[in-house]
Design goal:
Elements lengths: L8 H23 L5 H16 L6 H11 L1 H27 L5 H19 L1 H7 L4 H14 L1 H18 L3 H39 L1
Helix pairs in contact: 1-2, 1-9, 2-3, 2-4, 2-6, 2-9, 4-5, 5-7, 8-9
């Protein structure tokens, strides 16, 4: 039947789904030491961005190549990310456990949370796509988050919806374990890639002028 032919849309969907499951398993496997979560996440972003262009090739080979290439920077990025989130956790614990927290303390906690989010939301896809210093990557993530606020808001809503679906019931939670992280990364890759392409195009236009 035509639906099962190699070039059919159905078989292309099946191939993509298999790739997502394989990529998710690779990501989980390489996250097991915990300290390597950053390198594993950068590698997953690298492969997912290539998948968006149908250039993924061999999933495992591409993943481990990106994992090795970004191991140091990805690991440092993750440690900074984890430390920042933990600091926010302690900060909010103080706020929530205070009998009468001051408005200033609440405001500082909110602004700190927004700042940390903006600094790290695009840092992993930026590391996967560009070669740059870690300082510049974090700065660019903050700039992109502010400049493309509407797209960032869409990204937040999409990710929140997906997380909600994967937590809906037990069957969805099982599906979430199998493909959940990669669905989130794939969605973030799609929006990030559009932003990066716009930035590259604008930079190219300014260069020609």
């Amino acid at each position: 039947m035509a639906i099962f032919s190699h070039d059919s849309k159905f078989m292309h969907f099946v191939d993509q789904l298999v790739d997502v499951v394989v990529l998710n398993l690779l990501w989980l496997l390489c996250c097991l030491p915990i300290i390597t979560i950053g390198a594993s996440t950068v590698a997953a972003y690298r492969v997912s961005m290539r998948m968006l262009d149908s250039e993924e090739g061999y999933i495992a080979k591409s993943f481990f190549k990106a994992f090795r290439a970004n191991f140091v920077q990805g690991t440092i990025l993750w440690l900074l990310n984890a430390a920042s989130v933990y600091a926010l956790y302690l900060d909010w614990q103080i706020v929530l456990k205070s009998a009468n927290p001051s408005i200033i303390l609440i405001l500082v906690s909110i602004l700190s949370s927004v700042f940390v989010f903006c600094v790290f939301i695009y840092s992993y896809p930026l590391t996967a796509r560009y070669e740059n210093t870690l300082k510049r990557i974090l700065e660019n993530s903050l700039i992109i988050c502010v400049r493309y606020f509407a797209k960032t808001l869409i990204l937040i809503l999409v990710l929140a919806l997906e997380v909600g679906l994967f937590m809906w019931n037990l069957p969805m939670q099982i599906i979430g374990v199998l493909v959940g992280p990669m669905i989130l990364i794939y969605s973030a890759s799609g929006i990030s890639k559009r932003i990066f392409q716009k930035i590259d195009s604008d930079n190219a236009s300014r260069g020609e002028q």
